[in-house]
Amino acid sequence: MSWNGLAERIVHGGAITREEALGLLGSDDDELLAVLDGAFRLRRHYFGRRVRLNVIFSARGGRCGEDCGYCSQSVFASSEVEEFSMVDEQAIVEAAHAARASRAGTYCIVMSGRRASRVDVDRICGAVRRVKAELPGMKICVSLGLIDSAKSEALADAGVDRFNHNVNTSRRFTPQIVTTHQYEDRLRTVETIKKAGLSPCSGVICGMGETDDDLVDVAFDLARIGPDSIPINFLIPVEGTRLAGLHELTPVRCLRIAAMFRFVNPSAEIRLAGGRELNLGSLQPLALFAANSLFLGDYLTSEGQAKELDLQMIRDLGFTIEDDPSTAGEPDQVVKVHADRMPVGS
C-alpha cells in the first residue's frame, strides 16, 4: 500500500475506505515511517507546520454519578480525587491569563459531572465575556457534559468558541465502558452544540480494550458528525478504576492510531491529549507528524509533562506555534475545509 499515494488521493477529493483504515492499523512496523509520511502529507496540506496549544482549567472537581470505567472521578471508582465546588469568575479569568502566558491559543474550561446547572453556565458566561475583552484572540472551549439548546445558545452568545463532548469509543463498545448513558446521548449533545453555532470538539479514548474495528468505526462516525477538533486520549489505567491494570498500548500502536484518525478526518484538528506522555514515551515527537495540536500542561485528573519540554519538542521538529504573536507576520499556508463537505469512504 502506498500511504503517500492514498494521502494524495484524499488531498484531491478522494477518501480512505474502511478496509484501508483497517489495513493502516494492521500495517507492519517496517511501514511505520511510510504511514507517518502519508499522514504528514495531509497534516501539512490542511494545517501547514503549525501546532495549536491548548490549556485545560478545571472549574469544578469531584465525584460524578456516571460509571465510566476509565474515570477516577466516577462514584463507582475508589481512586483518590480532589473535590472542590465551582470556582468563582475571577479564578477562571486569571487561569485564562496564565494560559495566554504559556502561549496557548485555546483555553479549555472543564467541569466534572453529568451536566452543568444554569447557575454554573451563567458564571462561565460571565467569565468568558471578561476573557474575550481582556485577551483578544483567545479561543475558548468548554466541556460541561450533556447540555441542552438554551444553555448552548447562552454559551455561544457569551463568546464561547468550542464545546467539547467526546464520544470516547465506538457504538458497539460503549456498553462495555459505561452504562449510565448511551452512545446516542453523546451524539445528540454534539448535534445540539452544532445547532447553537458552537464549534464541535469530540474525540476518543484509545486502549480500553477496543478492537481495530471499533477504532475505525468511531473514526468514521466522527467523520460523519464533523467535529472541527478531535482529541485523541490514550488510556491512563488509574488505580481504583475498572480499567486499572489494563496496558494494551505501545508507542507504535499509538502512532498508527493517530495516523488513522488523520487519514479518515484529514481536515480536522487532531489533538494529542491525555496519556500521550505515558503511552508514546520517547516517540511523542513523531505523533506531531499526524496531529497538529496538543494539550499543554496538566489534564483534568492527571499530570502532563512540563510545558518547557513540549515547547522544546515543537522547536526541535521545526514547527511553529499557532497564534504565537512572535510568528504573526509569517505567511499562513493553512488550507481549511468544512467538515461536512469532506468525502467519507465506506
From TrEMBL:
Classification via InterPro entries: Aldolase_TIM, BATS_dom, Biotin_synth/BioAB, Biotin_synthase, Elp3/MiaA/NifB-like_rSAM, rSAM, rSAM_sf
UniProt entry keywords in alphabetical sequence: 2Fe-2S, 4Fe-4S, Biotin biosynthesis, Iron, Iron-sulfur, Metal-binding, S-adenosyl-L-methionine, Transferase
Catalytic activity from the UniProt record: (4R,5S)-dethiobiotin + (sulfur carrier)-SH + 2 reduced [2Fe-2S]-[ferredoxin] + 2 S-adenosyl-L-methionine = (sulfur carrier)-H + biotin + 2 5'-deoxyadenosine + 2 L-methionine + 2 oxidized [2Fe-2S]-[ferredoxin]
Single annotated GO MF: biotin synthase activity
Enzyme class per UniProt: transferase
Domain of life: Bacteria
Radical SAM core domain sequence ranges: 47-276
Enzyme Commission number, as recorded: 2.8.1.6
Sequence positions that bind [4Fe-4S] cluster: C64, C68, C71
Family according to the record: Belongs to the radical SAM superfamily. Biotin synthase family.
Role played: Catalyzes the conversion of dethiobiotin (DTB) to biotin by the insertion of a sulfur atom into dethiobiotin via a radical-based mechanism.
Protein's name in the database: Biotin synthase
Gene name linked to the record: bioB
